[in-house]
Design goal:
The protein has 7 helices and 14 strands. The protein is α+β, with helices and mostly antiparallel strands. Helix 5 packs across helix 6.
Length: 289
């Protein structure tokens, strides 16, 4: 029997439609299943231990739902096969997972100077990245077009700040930083290929720093991210791989980890958590049968 977990609070307007279609697929093919809201499970680890008759777990949701799930099971050797099916507004981690789910994925972690810390599987960022995700999370309607709209609005009002980045002992300092992302996956923002060379199965963080650029030109660079061409602007975009990265701004920022926000962050440290997880991409033709 398969367990289908869904997030009823997803603000993606199509989430209920996708959930219904999956249920109809199971019924049509007479595959035993049970569906349950992930919000009604107090402890996912305890729940799955007691429900060992489930062969597969199908998790429906976007990056935020996946992030919360990973944080709940990171210290647990889960016995069931875990499949992910897009049902959120971003689905950026699934874009990387779709072509790379044969090996285990690396779970990263970030510690904030606020005292908070969290695991993440797709990426963590500060600057415009955090401001945009905060706006998106509070919006009633979501989608790729709206993400672009929120990005444009954020670009117009965001004031770049001085920042210092220390990556594997090497220091980078800039007077005007718009964005720092430390990614495990290749995408953010609903399909923007921010780190084209990232690999969810290795221990490296792919770092992108957008800096020292006039405001009118930064609009052009952000549009090239959809094509993965922004790294060619080396004067304004610094990119590299590192094992451990510390980012410090001179003023408090909004940070995001897999789309989940942390406010009033001045400094954060990210690295591989020494934990692995094996998440699989859900495909009706080959999954959960």
């Amino acid at each position: 029997m398969d367990l289908i977990l869904y997030n009823p609070l997803s603000k993606n307007s199509k989430s209920n439609v996708y959930t219904h279609k999956l249920i109809q697929y199971y019924k049509k093919n007479k595959i035993p299943f049970r569906i349950k809201s992930i919000l009604k499970i107090d402890d996912i680890r305890v729940f799955l231990e007691k429900k060992d008759h489930f062969n597969n777990v199908i998790l429906l949701g976007g990056d935020g739902t996946i992030n919360r799930f990973v944080n709940n099971i990171a210290d647990y050797d889960i016995k069931q096969d875990i499949y992910l099916k897009s049902n959120g507004s971003g689905n950026d981690f699934l874009r990387s997972l779709k072509s790379n789910d044969q090996k285990t994925q690396k779970v990263m972690k970030v510690k904030y100077d606020t005292g908070a810390e969290t695991y993440f599987v797709n990426g963590v960022g500060m600057g415009i990245d955090g401001l945009v995700t905060s706006t998106v999370n509070q919006a009633e309607k979501k989608g790729k077009f709206r993400y672009m709209l929120y990005t444009l609005k954020s670009l117009m009002k965001y004031i770049p700040e001085p920042a210092t980045i220390i990556a594997d002992g090497k220091e980078y300092k800039y007077d005007k930083v718009y964005l720092v992302t430390l990614n495990n996956g290749r995408y953010f923002g609903g399909g923007m290929e921010i780190t084209p060379n990232a690999d969810i199965t290795d221990e490296n963080l792919d770092v992108i720093i957008v800096h020292t650029i006039k405001r009118f030109f930064i609009f052009m660079i952000f549009f090239t991210i959809y094509l993965g061409l922004h790294t060619k602007f080396k004067k304004y975009v610094t990119s590299f791989k590192a094992k451990k990265v510390k980012v410090t701004f001179t003023t408090p920022q909004i940070s995001q980890a897999d789309g989940e926000n942390e406010s009033d962050v001045t400094s954060m440290v990210a690295e591989y958590s020494k934990k692995d997880i094996h998440l699989r991409y859900y495909d009706n033709k080959k999954s959960a049968k």
